[in-house]
Amino acid sequence: MSATDDVRPFARVLTRASEMRARRLESGAAGDRIFKLLTGAMAYLVLILLAAAAFSMFWGGRLAFSTFGWKFLYSAQWDPVARQFGALVPIYGTVVSSFIAIALAVPMSFGIAIFLTEIAPGWLRGPIGTAIELLAAIPSIIYGMWGLFVFVPFMSLHVEPWLNDKLGPSPIIGPLFTGPPIGIGMLTAGIILGIMILPFITAVMRDVFMAVPDALRESAVSLGATTWETVGRVSLPYTRTAVVGAIFLGLGRALGETMAVTFVLGNAHEFTKSLLMPGNSIAAAIANEFTEADSPIYLSSLIALGFLLFIVTFIVLAGAKILLLRIGRLEGERA
Amino acid sequence: MNLIILRRRIANGVALCLSAMATLFGLFWLVWILWTTVSKGAAALKPRLFTQMTPPPGSDGGLLNAFYGSFVMIVMAVALATPVGVLAAIWLAEFARGNRIGAVIRFINDILLSAPSIVIGLFVYELVVRPQGHFSGYAGALALAIILLPVIVRTSDEALRLVPAPMREAGLALGLPHWRVTSKVLMRAASAGIITGLLLGIARISGETAPLLFTALNNQYWSADPKAPLANVPVVIFQYALSPYDRWQSLAWAGALVVTVFVLLLGIAARLLFKQRSTR
Amino acid sequence: MLKTFLAATALVAIAGSAFGAEITGAGSTFVYPILSQWSSDYSKLAGDRVNYQSIGSGGGIAQIKAATVDFGASDKPLTPEELATAGLAQFPIVIGGILPVVHIAGVPAGKLKFTGPVLAAIYFGAITKWNDPIIAKINPGVPLPDAAITVVHRSDGSGTTFNWTHYLGQVSGDWKSTVGEGTSVKWPVGVGGKGNEGVAAYVNQIPNSIGYVEYAYVIQNKMAWGSVMNSSGRFIGPSIAGFQAAAATADWAHAKDFDLVMTNAPGPKAYPITATTWAIMYRHPKDAARTATALKFFKWTLEHGQPQAAKLDYVSLPPALAKRIEAYWAAEIK
């Protein structure tokens, strides 16, 4: 039997099959178009949502912006009775407390991730991983309340006097650690924030460390690298993009956190360099004062603060993306 | 030679020791906070916590209406945010991987993710509560949905992008239309990651107080009508914990403990699901 | 899964049933405990449910102006002009007191005496040490330490702060002109605690500190309060009698729409830092039935609410004031 003898019946089948497929493809094409439109619409909805939220904050804050102008950004005045408001103290407090949170959370997360992926025996990984995730499950208001009733007394009785004595007199960082040991302040708030964002960063780091191809790690080990060197010189560079992304997401969470800091930051509208003194953050200021604001300019100033937080977050995240792009280009990766 | 190896070994030992200490450090905070929560809430950890309504000060009671209201709002928020979030993530992963508009939307999504929840609450207040003229559970659910949405978008996007290209190509090579490939093949493959993201988002919104204060308010009584103020756990915790009455305070801490345990159980369920799916 | 969600939501919406009337109020945190107790008792008697939530006095005013609630509650009264412009009416619902509390070793509750100007000077930062001669003069024999005073105030906006600063403004011209009064002010010195509980917590933790908290918190937390000299020159401590005396002698007859802050009230037995909270409603409400329900509730609290108020360390309004309020309703709210 030659090939050509079989072609004709097959050809009929094939033609019908291709007709059917063509028909299916047509409907598929229409379906695809709807699919692309629908999903695209949802994606643009995210865009619109943020734009709407940011715009409504801007609109609510327009009275403050028009009254105070650029001075709103650098004035440390906050006088509800005289109706003079400035955003410097809340912005400063937001940035400082978030920075402390990251400075605390990143090394800890890194350590815990290494422990979970390299050191812990298999049976221990699950429970400890769950325990760390439990930190994420605790509502943020509990962090605030625990902070107020338990952690603040601890800080004021045991930690802050020590800091005052040992670090207060030092030359450069001294002014950061002076002040009466009342327990509340940017340091306390930063520590609590750090514990709050710790589980998020840890979870991502652990997941990406585990995703490093065994071949890469084994090749390092076969060259005689210690565990630490493997992690530091192979796993970390491989996962650098994701790790930096996780850090900046944790940072984003810290910047916007309301309840955990409201209780322990002190809501003082005075600009101080010391970390042991009460300060303010944008989210805490809004949470503390919004429901009692009694003049339109007061309300508008608080909403303007909310808008400014969008701007701060934008700047921080943009910085992260640029950093990632630069690292990516150096490594020859795609963004 | 020996000296160098010794130094590297010491460095290794120190690093591993530090990482073990870091773990202990993390666990220490957890134990401390949980211990505080349990000890302060112990007085209210009785069966009536789940069977009675929020009481006036000085009387015993439970948190039934708050648990129910929170549950209803979370269910509604999930119903609202999940389809939108997953569809948006599909678009990002399938049609906008390397291009500019995809990068922009992902960036915008991250900003929304970091937005303070109180700002979202104010936004929904202006959008829904003020025109409608009353607080409502629907407004609360909407605020929670807006907080949940960027979490779902981000995690689903990552999960879909991780699906290996050959799977996608195989589906297309079989002649399936793109949307069929996505729904039948990609979604199944990425389902574990998507569900984990959803559960992380639920963990986040179960503890959010500020947005509910401006949208759903709270309700002292049994309320099952989402058109009106709906009782919810975070606001009850907020009001009761700062009161001078012992019974209210222990109810607040007990409520917090229940929320924590609930989220933990969800997380464990997520991991079990993941294990099931990945053992193929 | 989606179908299950939708079904659950629909079921939930249908399941929402009406018991009696349900009305909503929001505002002052100060009255939250007593209103929730009254509401609970009233609902058992009359079936109507009054759902009151504490979102702050400013929030209460904002919500009633936006008509998202049936009544608002505020620790700070609106002026008759504001009320007229917005078409609102206001009336007092309950009384409470604000006390200075201290944390000094060897000084128990009731031992320390203050005058108004002394309190103002402490909060202004003019008096910085406990053993300052001015304090020692009015407290002979009390062991005052040579230590700096840590001032504790509120970090959040609050009606308690409003009444406290109003009082300080009445007794100190410096305070009135420099700091003024308000739910939130630019405090010259001190640290801020969140809520009455926060202030109480800080005073309890920080030695040689002073703060101001509501009467209920002082009693429940067993704090060391100090007595304050009233306008008749007598040192009065916190007591139901002292608060009611202030409410009785305050000049309600000349206060249109009850726009009167009772601090530094005249009368020999009056406690000087007594405060009231006002309920705010529409004069000609869109939904008359809901306002009528609210008024019925408040009438019940005026006539039958004393026992619960006493149990929770609040003070119900003196009978003369209650009559005045009921007359006001008849005249203003239709």
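qc> Strands of chain A lie at 78-79, 84-85.
qc> done
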